[in-house]
């Protein structure tokens, strides 16, 4: 009986499932945009923030999953990294001068592992 109550656990699980399904479908070019759109809608409806690692890989224009070399290209310009979607030509820019790695990918972000 060491289960903790986590707010919005089911919604986070659904977002994670939809993101993984979108990753699988990107190679077949089927339903990937639809799954990403559903994940964004679940996050919006339940007022939950997407993890930044997920948010950085979803196109703002067409809500497609951005994978460099498959359906997006990444270029390093003078001071920023630019990722452009092939489907809608929408670009994202990340400043390289003040670039900080995603905190959730560092070791200090892991406090404990929760088993459901
Ligand atoms: Zn796009």
Structure report:
By secondary structure, the protein is of the alpha+beta class. It has one domain (9-109). The chain contains three helices and three strands. The protein has helices spanning 9-25, 32-45, 52-55, and strands at 72-76, 80-85, 91-95. The chain has a three-stranded antiparallel sheet with strand order 1-2-3, with no helix packed on it. It starts with 8 loop residues before the first helix and ends in a 21-residue tail after the last strand. Bound molecules: zinc ion. Zinc ion binds next to loops.
Question: Can I get a quick summary?
Answer:
By secondary structure, the protein is α+β, with helices and mostly antiparallel strands.
What does the main sheet amount to? Answer: 3 strands, antiparallel
Overall tally of domains: 1
Low-pLDDT sequence parts:
none
The backbone outline, from C-alpha atoms, is globular
Features:
116 residues, alpha+beta, three-stranded antiparallel sheet, 3 helices, binds zinc ion, tRNA processing, RNP4, Ribonuclease P protein subunit rpr2
Task: Give the topology.
Elements (H helix, E strand, L loop, with lengths): L8 H17 L6 H14 L6 H4 L16 E5 L3 E6 L5 E5 L21
Antiparallel strand pairs: 1-2, 2-3
Helix pairs in contact: 1-2
Bound molecules: zinc ion (ZN).
Zinc ion binds next to loops.
GO molecular function: endonuclease activity; hydrolase activity; metal ion binding
Protein name: Ribonuclease P protein subunit rpr2
Organism: Agrilus planipennis (Emerald ash borer)
